[in-house]
Amino acid sequence: MTASLQTVNIPGVRPRGPRSSSPPVRRGVGRPLGYAAAVIVIIAMLAPVAFIVIGGFRSNSEITTDPVGWPSVWNIGNYIDVLTGGIFWREVLNSTIAGVATTAGVVVLGLMASYVLARYRFRGRGALYAVFAAGLMFPMTVAITPLYILVKNLGLMNSLGGVILPQIAFALPTTIIILVPFLRAIPDEIQEAAFIDGCSRLGFFWRMVVPLAMPGVITVGILAFIASWNSYLLPLFILNNEATFTLPLGVQAFSSQYSVDTAKVLAFTSLSMIPALLFFAFFERRIVGGLTGAVKG
Amino acid sequence: MLDTQVSSSAEADTPADLADSEARRATGPLSPPRSPVRTRGGVWGARAEIALLVGPALLVFLAFVIFPIVMAAYYGFFSWAGYGVPTDFVGFRNYLTILQDPTFHDAVRHNAIIVVLSLVLQGPIAILLALLLNQKLRGQSIIRVLIFVPYVISEVVVGTGWSLMLQTNGAVNGLLEKLGLGSFTQDWLSNPDIAIWTLMTIITWKYIGFAVILFLAGLQGIPEELSEAAAIDGASYWQIQRSITLPLLGPTLRIWAFLSIIGALQLFDLVYIIWGQYVSSTAGTSTMATYLVTNGRNAGNYGFGNAVAVVLFLISLVVALIYQRYVLRRDTDGALTGKAGR
After folding, report:
1. ipTM
2. Which family does it belong to (chain A) (predicted)?
């Protein structure tokens, strides 16, 4: 109520642009409902996750007799088994390598191409941009079989390189479309000043564009990393050797191998969630900002 | 998969439009630098720089995106097991087989159901949640993070977890019995009357956070002065939401719907992980993409798989173009667009 009075009566006190985070609250209708909705949603969102995590602390007989419930004894044996088993860490390592290499490749190639598309004037620039942007219309599902054959012919089957290169290629359209407006917004005056000071265009790229583009780069980097970390279809086709499995393939293989040992599968599954969740919690602002920025153009 | 497409909407949705907006932009205030004041190397230097900077990205993109897509169209005309060079040219026979296969018809029907239900279920729930959460709440940022958690977890983890919970002796039925609702227990995964609803529940759970976050961002782009003015004129909270907020949220809603439709048409991971390659068709949850992988790669019939990919692509493309033509067009013409934070 107070908030609504404030917003109505003294609108000029706090400068509030359209991006202001203080939302309209009217007549107090929303707020209790807002909390209720938040509680319901959080329970709905977290209950399945909690089931997986808590299930990992239970024993199989407990899970069979009573699928929902607290562990009678918090049994960390399943988690210890997974953490000391070697398979989990190997897959974490593979996923990390694939994710880091994909991210690095996307950022480097995407930034260079976006710089040209944003700040060079040449014939065919629009067409070039359209070619990259058209990539958005081609999901990996459509190209997966020829991609598999291409990777096989390149001798990259069962190697992370065979996953990394296509992932870079398929992440380029998003990256370029997010970065080009970003680079275009760098004021011309900065560029002119740099040129007057004797900076070449490439020098300008290294000294000015790369640092100025950092926020955009971080956003596209995070998107590429999470997409790579969770990617399933491509590794399913390319990686047939267990030694090269990434986490998603590993979770699936583990759950079919130990299908009778539900508790262990749950422990493995919850451990495999942790890296992505940590990463997300750490960069939440950037991800949400990047997504909304992308939509708002 | 969704996040790749987020940005498709950012600029435009078809190559033609992109070229369009590109042309417009070149004359706009943000057009590239006029004449570089002093550069080394001149025209040829600039061309070399362009080649150096764009070359690697273009090479990777052409090799791993465009080339495979073109090859898919080519392979689709062959009966081919994936070894050596395809020689057994069969013309349109693969396509005829696909179009006459009742299993494929089922898959298309399931995709259509998933598209419609995704919009109908997620849209209203997400709008309501976004409206309710778009106020000063304590712990707002933690709420946003938690809503987004299922979206960040990989499809494989989601699929594995849910399929364990949904087994006949799993947690969902266990919970129902504990609540005294034992008569509602179901075979959630294999009963063909229910499986598609089970799938929709999981999809809603996984992807609703994305919709809510998008809508929240859209809501914050709506100038507060409008609802303030309406409040002064005596409009109630819900009147304001219905007559001011929702119309102004239109562009965001339409973009979300586009992403949701395309994502639903290409749904693969969740179905394949939870229902596997055989059960999905009898449970009534198979999609075009699972049909592609099952009858293409898993059956060793790569030519056929590629033909399915082409059909899937054409269907997505047609839907995207129709949507672009009749729905998104409003955003490029609409007078409200500029104000709605696009």
Report:
1. 0.80
2. Belongs to the binding-protein-dependent transport system permease family.
Residue boundaries of the structural domains of chain B: 107-333
Q: Quick one: pLDDT at residue A107?
A: 93
**What are the chain B neighbours of A209 within 8 Å (beta carbons)?**
none
| Fold category of B107-333 in CATH | MetI-like fold (1.10.3720)
Task: Output the CA–CA distances (angstroms, integers) from residue A35 to A82, B132, B208, B238, in the order listed.
Answer: 38, 8, 18, 17
Write phi, then psi, for B338 (nearest 5 degrees). Answer: -60, -35
Distance from CA of A80 to the nearest CA of B (A): 19
pLDDT (tens digit per residue) in B281-326 = 777 888 898 998 888 878 888 888 889 989 998 898 888 888 878 8
Asked whether the beta carbons of A118 and B66 are under 8 A apart, the reply is no
Put simply, the chain B residues between 102 and 131 with a CB less than 8 A from any chain A CB are: 128-129, 131
E-state strands within chain B: none
- Full set of structural domains in chain A with CATH: 29-75 (no CATH), 81-296 (1.10.3720.10)
Kindly report the CA angle at A112 between A107 and A117, in degrees rounded to 5?
A: 120
Structure letter (DSSP) for residue B78? B
Q: Which residue has the tokens 């706009």?
A: B28
- Mark yes or no for CB contact B39/A200 under 8 Å: yes
Residues of B in contact with A292 (CB under 8 A): 213-214, 217-218
> Could you tell me the sign of the dihedral formed by the alpha carbons of A8, A14, A20, A25, in that order?
negative
DSSP state letter for A12:
T
Measure A58 CA to nearest chain B CA, in Å. 13
